[in-house]
Amino acid sequence: MQSFTPRLRPIGALLLCLLAPAAFAGPVKVAVAANVQYAFADIAAAFTRDTGVAVEPSYASSGKIATQVLAGAPFELFLSADDETPRKLASAGQTVAAPKTYALGALVLWSKDPGFDGKQWQNWLKAASGKVAIANPQTAPYGAEALRVLDFYKLADSVKPRLVQGDNIAQAAQFVDSGAAQSGFVAKALVLAPQMQGKGHWVDMPEQSHQPIVQDMALLKPAAANPDARKLFDYLSSPAARAILQRYGYRLP
Hints:
The protein has about 250 residues and is α/β, with parallel strands linked by helices.
């Protein structure tokens, strides 16, 4: 029996090497733009239920996520709030596949003020005296588009002095929810979340008032060691995931 041992060891080592990526890949590490947090939680739950693969999400603004990726953060998949940031990461050699559009976002003005008038929102916003929340336009695409809306309707002079910025769009929504801001320009996906149902009123911002919010996803370099990351990347284009995105107010590419 001893004469066979040296032959079995190399074979066993080879099998271990072949199986290691699948056996020890661990949960898929996903960096998610804050506007998608509720929708992605539902998608991740469905993905885990369908595949048995765990998902480990982190939420932040797209700009902050990009900075973390460039600094070596071990994210395997990135769901951005725009298409520009994933393209920049691809140009910097941080992706293993071409970025892909997974959703088109919508911007709304939301308020819990009983006097909020969605039909006359421009006049209401101009006459109001309370704070107006937006996401940081330097790092959050929804914040940048909120400024475009103000410029488009010539509301910048009256509203900009009252702006309060959140680190990301979810924090901007928290300002409104807590009463720290009287109103806020937030992602439609946030106000449609079950956690927000029945809280205040909102009105869609017309598409012509800002640039389209095209949201891309990117498979990042660490995904090369975890085949489950590619599974989740593909799952986000599945009928199940697309149905969830639609439920949260996203349009589909």
